[in-house]
Fold these 2 entries.
Entry 1:
Amino acid sequence: MPTTDVYREAEKRWRHSLQEPGEELIDFELADDRVRRVDVAADAPDWLRGAQLYALCGVDGFRFLRCPFSPEEELRWSHAALAAWTEPEASESNLDLTHAGERGALWAQHEAAPSSSALRHLSWVTLGYHYQWSERRYDEARRSPFPPALGALGADLGRAVGQPLRPEAAIVNYYAPRSSMGGHCDDAEPCQDAPIVSLSFGLSATFLLGGPSRHAAPLAMRVRSGDVVVQGGASRGCYHGVARVLRGTAPARLREAASAGGGGGGGDDLRGVAEWLERGRININVRQVGPEAGWDEDPDAAAAVLAGGRRCRDDG
Ligand SMILES: O=C(O)CCC(=O)C(=O)O
Ligand SMILES: [Fe+2]
């Protein structure tokens, strides 16, 4: 039985962009024989009909959708992640522990005084069922309404890739340039049959997708602003993470759209969002937590379901 943490070794190399011979980054903008184009589902919503959808050869259930959003939509979703969803009524956050007194109106604080606002210390919020990091579980009693527009978006994307889900929880991650997220697998959701749908905005990143244990070497891929990663099927249980967020890689279209006053959210607001995205990356990953619809209607039954999360193999 091998004991080497192959994932971790690759993570260290990719963090410094060192590629071993034969180990190459997958870029869905370029031809690559490890990648194949697939059709969006016949019942995809209209706005996703022409989307560029890809699969990885030999990786069950993984899908990559190249940015299906207009620049205005990228700004609007990012604005929601920075403003509405950081409000204490909407989310739990890392700031609850360290900056509880400054949790309200974070985006307004940032716009008034960017260099001193608590937004600089924001690294995550949770929406809907709030993931409990230390217990690696969800708690029936810790839940906020799931943002309806994000629920509709997650459901649309799941349908378009032929892997429907009922969005019930999301983690929103806020990254600075050069930052990373260590390899992990998302095993707290009792329902592991529905995919995780993961949206990214702002700076590009090197994303790693490994296997069901840390013994498998991960594939590395470039994820850019607006791209959507779907971990369904067998890939739902695979180790993954972010080896590095890449400085200076935000697309010019974001600033251009914000300057043109697009998006209907107020030109100034969106200019601030475009500026934030030039120095940061937002990742919004949407999950279904429970099995069949209605699983959470009775609190005791829901608590029993939530206690039964699966554990990924961590035999590295
Ligand atoms: O930022 C990303 O692309 C991945 C985030 C992730 O895997 C998670 O929050 O579980
Ligand atoms: Fe994850």
Entry 2:
Amino acid sequence: MPDRTVFRGTAFSCDADDRVQALVDHLFVVEDGFITAVLPADDPAAAEAVGDAEAVSTQPGQYWLPGFVDLHVHAPQWAQAGTALDLPLADWLRQHTFPLEARFADVDFARRVYASLVAELLARGTTTALYFATVHPTSSLELVLACAAAGQRGLVGKVVMDGPDNPDFYKDADASAAVADTGWFIRRVQELRAATGAEVYPVITPRFIPSCTDEALAGLGALARDLGVHVQSHCAESDWESSHVRERTGRSDSAALDGFGLLGERSVLAHCVHLDDDDVALFASTGTAVAHCPLSNAFFGDAVAPVRRYARAGVDVGLGTDISGGFDPSLWSAIRQTVTSSRMLESGVDAAQPPAARGVPDSRVTFEQAFALATAGGGRSLSLPIGRLAEGYAWDAQLIDVVGHRPLPIFDDDEPERILQRIITLATPANIRAVWVQGRKVVADGEVVVGH
Ligand SMILES: O=c1[nH]c(=O)c2nc[nH]c2[nH]1
């Protein structure tokens, strides 16, 4: 007999075309973690669908939302979140980030930082995260274990950095060691998943072209082809990074990564601020997704990524916090920043320019579109059945309370669509009362409950 629960209440979720729907007083039948039926509570078939299943109903002022999918998190950098963001990218990496990441050779330190981060993300409604760990294979496994213990869906990569420009204290020994360690890491994660059923996945993770040799990139591309696992890296992130790649390879960042066999349906590339039309077409034709990290781009990107243009070209796009290039672990903030940055891209930012010359037309992202990026867009980017409250999808959900101990300023009866806008713009972690990952409750009364 499958494990069966029926969740009842009003939900906000995207349809297959990314339009946000208000499903007022619906039943969500969940069997073994997946939604098997969605129907209005007054549907004649409702009583039969509920049967003798355990029922979980919302209270007045509570709503179901899909769990968020964070497509770009540097887990070790949680230990420096909120600091040093007044430096350019290359200096920030050398002076702060690489020395911090080197400390993750210490497995106990890694365990402490990773447990703290996973709990913080879950409490903010992030049910799935695509993580960079560090170059260390064993301590990267600690991040996988932290996800498994807390019940978060975690896609984790051991970072590859074998190039000559990396500091001696923080790099892979050489290309063949980097590829062999990645293979070892992938096998360990797959074994853990098979043995425990934990929702953990290995990810091939060349940091970015400037930190890897051609030999390592080609070796990782071959692994991706042979094993069919996810791939992540950074791409077209800043003027410095893009021109470094062009000088070294004679090609754009995305064309070079494609040449190494690193683009595909399961590839997610962070930032992608500086893509020309050929790059965008390459993303669309290979099924490669963009992890849009608007807060980090404000510090390091030198421009705003035109994500509406990418979406119109058929590219999968989701959102990332980019801890700690972005200081805020909340994907709620990433949604808001996506809208804000897109408005600045459309209107332009230099008041000395005439209005018609100042911005980029058709760049605005609405709050609902940004919500879709954080949910359905993230799921599509990872090619996983997550990010929507719809039949066939995992029950990854957040229970939002707008009237409880931290009420939102909703004083009159309001349309569901307006309530969603208020939730997206104003909710804080205090409004997230409970969180489920694949049918398993991982946050209750605002506190992480599993494995802690
Ligand atoms: O925001 C960023 N964070 C990083 O850790 C990193 N490494 C390469 N490029 C990067 N960008």
